[in-house]
Amino acid sequence: MKKFFFIGFLLMAFILVFSDELVVYTYESLSWIEEGLVQKFEERCNCNVKVVKLGDAGNVLTRLMLEKKNPKADVVLGLDQSLSAKAIQENLLIPYKPDNIKNIKDPTLIFDEEFYVIPFDYGAIAIIYDPDKITDELRSFEDLTKYEKSLIVQDPRASSTGQAFLLWTIAVYGEDWQDFWKRLMPAILTISPSWDDSFALFEMGQAPMMVSYATDSAYSQYYYGTSKYKVFIPEEGAYVQIEGAGIVNGAKNFELAKRFIDFLLTQDFQKEVPLNQWMFPVTNVELPEVYEYAVIPDKILTIDDNKISKNLEKWLNEWEDLVF
Amino acid sequence: MKKSIKKHIPAFIFLCLWVIPFTFLFIDFFNFEDVSNILDPRTFRILSFTIYQAVLSTLFSLIITFLPAYYASKSRGIISKLLDNSVFIPFFFPPVSAVVAFSLLYSSTGILSKLGLKINVMYTLTGIILAHIFYNSPIFVRYISEGLKKIPKNFKESAYIEGAGKFRTFLNIELPLIMPSISRAFFLVFTYNFMSFAIVLNIGGIKYSTLEVAIANALRGTFNFSKALSYALIQLLILATINVFMSKFEPITFDYESESENKVGIFSQIISIIYLIFEYSIVIVGIVSAFFNFVTMKFDISGLINIFSKELNQRFPVIQSIFNSIFVSIISASLSVIVAYYLLKNYSKFTNVAVMSTLSISSAFLGMSLLYLNILFNISYFVLIILGYFLITVPLSYSFLFQPVLSFDASIIESAKIDGASIIKIFSKIELPLLFPAFLSAFLQVFAIIYGEFTIGYTMQIRDFFPLVSIVNYTLSSSRLYLESNALSAFNIVIVFFVFYLSNKLIKKGKN
Asked: Looking at chain B from residue 111 to 130, which residues have their Cβ under 8 Å from any Cβ of chain A?
C-alpha cells in the first residue's frame, strides 16, 4: 500500500513538474476562444492551455509590466498597434516569425516588421449612429461637428477604442488635430472610460452617435435581424485597429508558444474570428453572409508605429489639456 | 515599557501591515524624479477640481441630511427605520448599477423626462454632486442621528426649564455635543467624495477628472506607475492632514438613557420623506431593472433565470462567485471587527490618526500592491484578497464601533476586576453580551461593504483565479448581458437586505 502511494506521489510530482501548460493572457471579450478553439489546439499539441482573462487590453499590458521580473504567461493575445509599441519598448516580448506568416492576405497588416507581434484580426474604427435621429447624410469628420452634444467617445487614456479614435484624427488632420478636437468638443456628449460604457449609454438613447467599429451593422443584423444602427466612415479615410499576439519574454513554454502563434494563422482559428470577435480575419477565409452589412473602407489611414511609440504620451497629455 | 507607548503598538502593527505590500511596489516602480510631477500645473488643476467637488458634495450632503437625521433620532416609525437603513445603500449598490439607474431617472431620455420633469443632470457638476449625495449622505444621517440619540434627556430638560426653545436648545446644547459625530461623518464623506472614481467618470464625463481618475489613467492609460504613485502620495498627504485636524474633536461619552419617541415637526417629516424618495428611487429602479427593460419598456425575467442557468455559469461563474464573496466577506468582516475592537481598547490620539488615515489610501493601489505580492511570492489570491478587504475595512469597523466601545461604562469592568475576573471572563460575560448589537451591526455593515467591493478585485483581475460577485457582475455588463447584470445586482441587494433583516431580528432577540 505504501509503495502504491509512493508511486502515485511520484507520478503526481512528475505531472506537475513536466506537464505542458501553456498560459495565455488575453482580455475578457476574447474569452470565446475557450469555447472549442483552445480545445482544438490542446488536441493538436497534446498539452493544456490555461487562458487568463484580464479585463481589457490595457489590463493585460499592465499585468505583463508588473510580471516583468517573474513572467507567468507564455503568450499574450489582443495587443493593438499602440499597446504593442509600448510592450516592445518595455522589452516584454520576444520576436517570432511563424512559418505560416504568408497566410496573411495583406502584408500591410504586419505592422511590426520585427515580428514581436503577429496580427490575427483587424477592423476599422467607425462612427455608428441611429438613423432615426441622424437623418442627414454624413460625409466627413466636419459633419460630426454640426451636432450638439450628440457623440459618445471613449477616453483615449483608458480605452483602446478611444486611443484608436484619437490616432484616427491625428492621421487625418496631422499637426492640426487639436483644432479639429476644439471644433468637435461641442458635439461630444460625454467621454466614457470604455467602449462597453459607451455602448450602454448609446443603447439607452443618451446620444445618437458613438465611436465604435465598422462591423457593428453586421453584428446588429446577426443578433437583432435588423441593421438598426448605421455605420459611418468619413471620406477622409478609415483608421484600422490591428490586433496581434506575441510571445512573452521569459516564457516557460517557448516551443508551445510558437505553435500557438502558428495556430492563430490557421483556417481553424481565422474562420471563427468574424462571428465571435466581430473583426476581419487576417487570412483569406470565407466571410459569413452577414458581413455584407459590414462597411469595408475604401481608404486606409495609418500612423507609423515608431511615431506612435515616440509621441503617444505627448499626444495624450495634449488631448487631456485640450479636453479638461 | 511605558503604558502610553504600549497603547500605540497595535496601531503601529496595523500600519506595518499596510506598508509591507506597498514597499515592494515602491522599490521596483517608483522614481524619485516623478515627485516633480506634484509641481505640474496639470496636477494642480486636477487637485483643485478634486477638492472643489468634494467640498461641495460634502457640504450639500450635510445640509440636506440635517433634518432627516434629526427626524431619525426623535422618531421610531417606519420612516425613521428606512432613514437609518439608508446607510447601507451606498455600500452594496455597485457604481455601475447606480450609473445606469441615474441615467434611467435623470437623463434627457430618462423616466423623469418622460413624466414631463425636464431634469437632465447627466454629464454636469450637478450630476456629480447629486450622485455623491446619493452615495454618501446616508453616512451623515446615521452618525448625526446616533449622536443626537445619545444626548442625555436631562441636558435638554434643563435647557427647557431655563426657558430655551427647541431651536435654541439644539443650537446651544445638542449641536456642540454632536460635533464629534459630525466631524467623523464629515471626514468619511469627504474622503469618499475626494476619492470618487466611477461617479466622476460616468456621470461627470467630459471636463471632470479627480486624482483617483488620474491614478487610474496613469496606471492603465500611459502605464506610468511612478506618476500614479506620486498622485496617490498627494492624495494620502491631503486626506491624512484633514484627518489629523478632524481628530481634534474628541469623542464625548455619557451615561445616557435612551429617549422615548418625541414628536417631530411636519416640515422635518416632509423633508425626510423627500430624502427617502430620492435615495430609494435609485435603488428601486436598480432592482426593477432586473425584470423590466426600461429601453423597450417591457417585462423580461430572462436575465433573472439566466444567471442561475448552467450555460451561463460555464462562462460566468455567477453561483460560485456568490458563495466566494459570502465566504470572503464573513472572514474579512470578522477579522476587521475583532481588530477594530482591539484597537479601540487601546485608544489614543495616535491610534485614531493612524487607523483613520488608511482610509485615504487608494484602493486601486492597494489592489496593485497585493497583486504584486502574488507575482513575486506566489501568495494565493484568496489570502491576499482577505488581507486587502481586512485592511480597507478596519477604519470603517473602527468608526462603527467607536461610540459604543469608547462610551462603554468602565466602572462595570473595574468592579469585575476587583472581584478577580480574568480578561477573558470580563469580555465573555460582560462586554460581549452588552456590545453584541454593536458588534453585529458593525460586522454586517462591513460584510455588505466587502460583498459589493469592486476596485481591489478588479485591479487584481482576480476573476479567473477566485471569482467574486462584483467582478463577475462587471464582466456580465461588459459582455452586453445587461439584463443578467441588473438581475445579479438586484439579487445582491436582496441578499444584503435579508442579512440586515436577520440581524435586526437577532439584535431584538438579544435585547429581549
From this structure: 122-123
Which cell numbers hold the place of B197?
472614481
Does the pLDDT at position A313 exceed 70?
A: yes
Which residue, B185, B78, B89, B99, is CA-closest to B402?
B185
Q: Give the side-chain half-sphere CA count within 13 A for A144.
A: 28
pLDDT tens column, A80-89:
988 998 899 8
Residues of A in contact with B123 (CB under 8 A): 189-190
CA-based nearest residue to B334, from B438, B449, B443, B468? B443
Taking one residue from A and the other from B, the number of pairs with CB-CB distance under 8 angstroms is 109
Higher pLDDT, A168 or B500: A168
Residue in the block written with cell 487590453: A57
E-assigned strand segments in chain A = 21-26, 48-53, 75-79, 93-94, 118-129, 151-154, 188-192, 209-213, 230-232, 238-248, 280-281, 300-301
A324 CB near a chain B CB, below 8 Å?
Answer: yes
- Residue B128: pLDDT over 80: yes
Dist CA A76 CA A246 (whole Å) = 5
Residue B487 contacts residue B98 (beta carbons within 8 Å): no
**What pLDDT is stored for residue B494 in this prediction?**
82
Q: Which helix (H) or strand (E) holds B328?
A: helix B318-345
B170: left (phi over 0), alpha (psi -120 to 50) or beta: alpha
Residues of B in contact with A321 (CB under 8 A): 42
Q: How far apart are the first and last CA of chain B?
A: 44
ipTM of the complex: 0.79
Q: Grid coordinates standing for B220?
A: 492603465
| Interatomic CA distance for residues B330 and B446, integer angstroms | 9
Kindly report the average pLDDT of chain B as a whole number: 84
Q: Which positions 247-286 of A are in contact with B (Cβ < 8 Å)? A: none
Alpha-carbon span B89 to B73, nearest angstrom: 19
Q: Please state, in angstroms and rounded to a whole number, the distance separating the CA atoms of residues B400 and B336.
A: 11
3-state secondary structure of B454: coil
Q: Any chain B CB within 8 A of the CB of A318?
A: no
Closest chain B residue by Cα to residue A159 = B221
Q: Mean pLDDT over residues B56-69, rounded?
A: 94
Residue with cell 488615515: B357
Cβ atoms B181, B70 nearer than 8 A: no
How many Å lie between the alpha carbon of B222 and the closest alpha carbon of chain A? 6
Length reported for chain A: 324
Number of helices followed by number of strands (H, E) in chain B: 26, 2
Task: At B74, list the grid cell.
Answer: 426623535
What average pLDDT does this structure show over B256-265?
63
- Contact call for residues A46 and A19 (beta carbons, < 8 A): no
Helix, strand, or coil here: A191?
Answer: strand
> Which chain B residues contact residue A191 at CB under 8 A?
205-206
pLDDT of residue B252: 56
- The answer to whether the Cβ–Cβ distance between B219 and A321 falls below 8 Å is no
Residue pLDDT, tens place only, B184-205 = 889 889 998 998 887 887 787 6
Rounded distance between C-alpha atoms, residue A295 and residue B379, angstroms:
48
